[in-house]
Each structure stands twice: as structure tokens, then as C-alpha cells.
């Protein structure tokens, strides 16, 4: 068949990208045509997303894709859990909050008093993160916005609504809300009622691969395209799209989707809802084609990027990413390790001081220089990957033979090598744009490309992208380091 060319919008917490993706029978080509900075905006004591600014950049990017060739479809993925509310006229009620806003402090405990933790997990199968949508909505109870809301739209669905006028909730992202039943794959209406969440604002569910609708006439005009270009639902949760883009040929693989967050785990056919999984606080997120991602959210490269931001605010000029990574390669291994999932690392702020504080509390040597702090973060991430991949394998009864690292972090070779060392199996790193590739592939299948299943999509990624292989090196005592942080 003739190649399919689509626009893939992939939104991250620190930047958004619009790519042109071209898929032929044996080819897969991605070109980044637009990139723009993103980040929380602090106003009136809260942390918001500038969602209209994002919408404008989405339009700018898609227009660029259309200007440079045919446009057969548009797909949008972004980080999960955050949402906008619409009033009865279909207008946005206020700015969407960032999940790193502090309004959910103390809220999970209150909700868990109404629905026990065991009940909640049995239904949703989610890691108990303070920013899960259910907790954000509980925090918003009694606010004017929530009281006048007619619809809740997760961010990629909100952006798709502005393109098409169509309302819905794509399942991979809905599965991160804490209001979705991972077994029946429907909204958990009873749960919402028990928590006092207005369940009627939850829109109809749709699947990745469904056509959402053609772009609205006025949007087609803004984009300079023909009315009728379809917006296609992709794995609208970026992690769902990233795992579609994992170039696995083996069945038993583990993955780390490494960006702002590190999502560390396994792809399964069915959720693991055991008591042991709940106590280990593992998540079961919905994937494309009915798969389940059994994983742990690890604080990720966010910690390093907040360090870099802090150093640049403090005018420490020599602390660029390249410079600290180069220094970190030669820094002593495992000199200082901390619990990288400490909740105090979640909000934006002075990350170097927080790392020093955690080291001090744990009786570890306090890292003093940007290089030593960066090395602490990277060692601690590798240690966390090791622990959670072992737990995932044990809980799911698997024994993965390789770890695929995809996303921006796959370019951090020190972290990839340390991950291989720590986990004790080879790491295959790349592609760094897995989420955009997954977005493109799901659209292409809907638009007629012969990609019958995830296996076929992954094959195509494997054949068209070069991977870096890291073999585990012996000689470092990771067990002893783990004992230090669990002490
Ligand atoms: C990664 C990600 C994670 C989700 C977090 C918050 O970008 O989507 O999967 O837990 O962001 O939405």
C-alpha cells in the first residue's frame, strides 16, 4: 500500500513535540517538526498547566506537518491523570491543575477512610499516588468549578475535543484515574459514588485505534487542511504509546519508559491484583490492545532536571547536563544512595538540598558537588529499577531476559549501563521517541497500514531503529547498597 503520513502530538511535562510520522510496509520514519517548552505555571498559590498555550502549539505543529506533505491523521498523547472541566456550554472551567500541585496533600488518607485501600486496589489496581485523578477530584470537592462541571476530559481528550468537538475518554489514560475498573474496563461508578465524586461528568470510554472524528471546519481552516482529516485515538497516555514503541522481539521482556518519570515493569495480559501486589504498591495500567502494564512509578529524571534548574537559578554555570553527566561517569559508584521515591521529591523546588537532606537522614555521605549529587541521583535510580523489576517479576511469575529502556533517558548511557549492572540482565536502549512512534503506529493501523498487532508494530520499530546494548558488568555490590536504603 501507499505510505501513511500522520501528525503525532506527544506532550511531556517539560516539552511538547509534534512529529510527522510516515509508515510504509517496511518503513517507519519520524521527523520532529515542532518542539515547544512546557512546565507548570504558578498562579494564585497553585500550579497549573497553560493548556490554551499547549493547544496553540499543537495547532502550530500540526500546521507544519500539513505544510510539508500529506496529512492522513492526527493523534495526541500526554502525561496522565490531569484533566479539564467543561461547563454546560462546553467551555473550559478554569485552568487544569498540575499533578505536582500540593492540593492533594493529605487527601488520599481521607478518601481511604471512605473506601478501604484493599477495596480501592481490587477495583482499580493502581499504585497509590497522591495525584491520581480520584484524589484530585476529592481535593476539588465543593469548589465552584467542580460544582458547575458537566464533563471531565483528560488532557489529551480535551485537546482532541478542541479539534473535533467530540467528547470521550480513551481507555489507557482513563485507567490512570483511580475511577476505572481494570477488570471490567468500565468506569468504576460505585466507587465514584462512595467517594462523592460526581460520576456523571465521566465521558463515554473509547479505545486506542478508534476514530474520534474529523477536524472541525474552523480548525481545518486554521490548519490549512481539508475538512475531514480524522483525529485518531492513540494510546493517549504517553506511557501506553511508549510501550507500543518498545522494539521487543522476545516475549519475556521488562521495560523502563524513561522520561520525567521512570515507569518500570512488565507487559501482562491480565492485571495482578493480589494482596502482595497491593502491599508492594504496584500499578496495573491499561495498555493498547487490552494489555496491562504492571509497573512502578519511579521519580525519574525529574529529579535531575530539577537539580539542573536549581543550579542554573543559582548561576552555577559549570553545572550543565553534559558536564555533570561526564563528571558522574568517573565518580565513585554507590558512594551515596537515597530512596529516590521519597514523596518530598515530587513537587518542584530545590532538589540538590533535598537530596542532601535525604542522604543525611539515611546516614549516607552527603554529596557536596553537582557531580556528586548527579551521581547520587543516577545510582539511586538504578538501585530503584533493580528493586522494582525484581519485585514485578516475582509478583507476576515472570523472569525477563532483557530490559528495554525507551524514552529520552535511553540516551543517558551511564544510567543504562548502571541499570544493566544493577538488574543483572542486558539492557537494550532506544528508541528515545518511543511514545511518538507508538502514537504513529496506532494511527497508521487505523488508517489501513498492515500492522495486525503489537508484535508487528514492534517488529517494524526494531527493523528501523538502532539500539544500544549494555551488558551487565560484575564487581559492584548492589545488594549491600539496597540494604543501606531499606535500613
Ligand atoms: C509519564 C506519566 C506517567 C504518569 C505521570 C503522571 O509521563 O504519564 O505514566 O504516572 O506521567 O501523569
UniProtKB/TrEMBL annotation:
Residues 254-446 form the Carbohydrate kinase FGGY C-terminal domain. Residues 71-245 form the Carbohydrate kinase FGGY N-terminal domain. Belongs to the FGGY kinase family. One of its GO terms (molecular function) is rhamnulokinase activity. Pfam families: FGGY_C, FGGY_N. The keyword Kinase applies. One of its GO terms (biological process) is D-xylose metabolic process. It comes from the Bacteria. It comes from Nocardioides lianchengensis. Keywords: ATP-binding, Carbohydrate metabolism, Kinase, Nucleotide-binding, Rhamnose metabolism, Transferase, Xylose metabolism. InterPro entries: ATPase_NBD, FGGY_C, FGGY_Carb_Kinase, FGGY_N, Rhamnulokinase. Signal peptide: none annotated. This is Rhamnulokinase.
